[in-house]
Amino acid sequence: MSLIYSSSSATPQTEAKQYGCSAKPQVHAPTTGRRSIAKKRPERKPDPITPALDSDQRPDPATAEAAKSGYLKRRRWSHDVWDHHGLEAVYRHGHIAIRHPFRVDGDVCGWQDRMPKAFNGPKWLSAKGRKVIPFNLDALKDPERGYLHIVEGPADAITLTEALFTGYPVIAAPGAGTWRPEWGRFATGRTVIVTGDNDEAGAKFIGKVIESVTGHANWIGSVQPPDEHKDLSDWWVAEGQSAGDEITRQLEWVELSRRAAPDGVDR
Hints:
This protein is of the alpha/beta class and 267 residues long. Helix content is 27%, strand content 19%.
């Protein structure tokens, strides 16, 4: 299912490392008997995104290769996307997990580890004490790409690069509840596609993303998996390339709608 939203004019582009670098102006309502003047909070400098220190142990090569092969098979992913996104097998809490690194300018600045079913805890574990950033921010580097896809979780982002093409410009929130308003700056001047899970949290995620990119993106659309699939990754595992073909058709429909927009509507 594809949905279309138009957006107001974009503001100047902000680089990946500079998200959240300024606060929105705060306007205070007048109070009785006193004159109130609208005040703008001072701009704050960007919080630094520094490389993460990684002391987690790695399994021996044979064990790591077995973990890699099993994970790729379950996800229906290729070795190409594994290498492109820098995935690797690591030990977390005595279990072999698959690390999904969050990179900025090639540096690993955080990660999420997909834990095995045998682990008695969350499915995903993040790097401790790290600044929360979207996955795959380096996808923003190519200025020739006039669009950006925003999804829930690294797995859905990687699935899109498998289903479409390796360098597909997609970023992901670490989870449905982690999207931050200041991340809307990443959409500046781009056509934005947003995809959430088929549940209540996913619907809220889509709403938060649309709210944050409005005023930055020049066009906003939504691509969703069929109701019988929880998310993009489940859809891909179940249907393979036929799911990829349908995603492509939905994206083409969004682009046709953007081009057909009447004069005066941002495109």
